[in-house]
Amino acid sequence: MKNEGAEGEEGARSNTSRRTFLLAGGVTLVAAGVAAAAKLGRAPALLGLGRKSGPRISGGWVNESAAIGHRLRDRAPMPAPRRTVRVPVVIVGGGIAGLSAAWQLDRRGFRDFVLLEMERETGGNARGGENAVSRYPWAAHYVPVPGPRATLARELFRELGVLTDAGWDERTLCFAPQERLFVQGEWQSGLEAELMNSRTGRDELRRFADLIAERRASGEFTIPMALGAPAGSPLDRMSFADWLAANGLRSPAIRWYAEYGTRDDYGALARDTSAWAGVHYYASREAAEQGPLTWPEGNAWIARRLAARVRDRTVTGAPVHRIVRDGTKGWSVRAGDAEYRCEDVIFAAPTFLAPYVIEGARAPGFVYSPWLVANLTLDRRPDERGASPAWDNVLRSDAGLGYVVATHQSLRAREGGPTVWTYYCALANRDPVTERQVLLRSNWSDWVERIMMELEVAHPNIRRCVSHVDIFRIGHAMVRPTVGFLGADARRTREWAPRGIHLAHSDLTGFSLFEEAQYRGVAAADAVLATHQLG
Ligand SMILES: Cc1cc2nc3c(=O)[nH]c(=O)nc-3n(C[C@H](O)[C@H](O)[C@H](O)COP(=O)(O)OP(=O)(O)OC[C@H]3O[C@@H](n4cnc5c(N)ncnc54)[C@H](O)[C@@H]3O)c2cc1C
């Protein structure tokens, strides 16, 4: 579904609209600490635009699916059913949640189901791509080493050979160095680098770590969250920004560091995130963890293995457009020209779609963050200063979240040859509706320019090294755990969803994580098994 023509078609726009886009995106790289970045922050249009400083870059948009989503939203006419399939259980959506539901049904011996996926390929946010240089992720790229309570994740990793009696497979544990930060004009080791460079920073980091350790000890901040989250935590009634201020954590460095967590996991600023969720990012993980687990194609490595197990019961390219009652007990699920008549539906597509698709379903009222992911193919490694290249390379800015190196786990990566970087940008600076509209109207070449401008602060000759850029824009990429999310009615799906519909998407947790998607998918499958008395 690549749109290679995007550049030519849109590239003719005036520099004014391009300038507006670059400025509107809130590209402020001042904190990266170099003069060029400071200049960029004030007037990005002056640098880089129209400059022929590197070879032409090819590429375009990929995985575009907004048009199908809009047809569902607008209840556009769909083909009438021409064939009927009778099957006890239908799974709608083949992301990690839907695939995990299928995994659970299958391993419990219940094989009479079909999984319907809208895209050509299953995986959802855990899809990946491949080119001559490497495999690479399209969104999810790692799983923290599962803690003791993430029993399902541990079971799956045992089945896949990632966990054995000898421990975690060394090839999947992220190689050192894992993270570095570009700050004060050079790459420095670890995301804490800026804080570690001053006494105030070190004091604030210690205070933050103490507060988090105290919360971790409460046992409330578990993964999966359902095992620990209290019904009405006072922390869920304030924003993470207010919680930081209330605890005297005010310097720009500690605010950036803490907010990196909410931007990274929720695509949201600290002021737009529940303090419970902000704390969860740090307190749910062990202080010193071994991992994370990662693969060149990210979590697509897991998704493809789950998909292989149920390939014979999977239909791709099948967007479900209507689910209506069929008699008193059953459901009719319509996808393309087929009607699937079933008793139970596991709805593992994003929950915001439920009211558009399912008869009798209400709108959950969740907020979703838009994201942009770009895969950059580099012919060689660009110049840089400071700490050695890491797996995760973060620039101290409020624009993108930096890039992950797909070839990091290979020895070739150390040789400076061709590589693929996956660049991440959470569009969090303005409200999600505005960000989504701007994202859908933006053009590919402006985004390439914006990414180059951002990265050339740390890699001055980046334009000479990048040959290809594919970009995936995800309008409703992940749910936001906003203030009050823990207590939201729509999260109590048993009361909320119509009978026979089992909601399973990870968005019900507020935490867009592999383990949460897996937990919800398995929980929905268990509910189905219980009604069929196979649990
Ligand atoms: C940029 C980004 C980076 C991320 N990084 C990480 C990470 O590193 N680690 C991590 O653990 N998590 C990460 N995540 C979170 C990731 O979303 C979850 O880990 C998980 O993959 C979500 O799975 P899911 O099944 O709940 O949802 P989704 O992945 O959203 O799956 C939903 C599926 O439903 C399908 N669908 C939608 N509508 C229909 C329809 N009408 N009919 C049929 N099918 C339909 C979709 O095509 C999709 O396949 C990231 C997310 C994003 C956006």
Largest sheet: 8 strands, mixed
**CATH architecture descriptor of the domain at 6-65 and 368-479:** Alpha-Beta Complex
| Helix coverage percent | 25-40%
In whole angstroms, the N-to-C terminal distance is 40 Å
**How do the strands of the widest beta sheet line up side by side?**
1-22-18-21-20-19-10-11
Name the ligand types: flavin-adenine dinucleotide
Number of distinct beta strands: 23
CATH class of the domain at 6-65 and 368-479: Alpha Beta
What does this protein structure show overall?
There is one protein chain. The chain is built from 18 helices and 23 strands. The strands form six sheets. Strands 1-22-18-21-20-19-10-11 form an eight-stranded mixed sheet. Helix 9 packs across helix 11. The two termini are 40 Å apart. The N terminus is likely disordered. With 535 residues, it is an alpha/beta fold. Helices cover 31% and strands 20% of the residues. Among the domains are: 172 residues, Polyamine Oxidase, Chain A, domain 2; 112 residues, Orthogonal Bundle (Guanine Nucleotide Dissociation Inhibitor, domain 1), CATH 1.10.405.
Write the layout of secondary structure elements.
Layout: H1 6-10, H2 15-24, H3 35-42, E1 58-61, H4 66-73, E2 83-86, E3 89-92, H5 96-107, E4 113-116, E5 128-130, E6 135-137, E7 142-143, H6 151-159, E8 163-164, E9 167-168, E10 179-183, E11 186-189, H7 193-196, H8 199-217, H9 240-246, H10 252-266, H11 275-283, E12 293-294, H12 300-309, E13 314-315, E14 320-326, E15 330-335, E16 338-342, E17 344-347, H13 354-357, E18 368-378, E19 392-395, E20 402-405, E21 419-426, H14 432-441, H15 444-455, H16 462-465, E22 466-479, H17 493-496, E23 501-503, H18 514-531
Parallel strand pairs: 1-22, 2-16, 3-4, 3-17, 4-13, 10-19, 17-23
Antiparallel strand pairs: 5-6, 7-12, 8-9, 10-11, 14-15, 15-16, 18-21, 18-22, 19-20, 20-21
Helix pairs in contact: 5-12, 5-18, 8-11, 9-11, 10-11
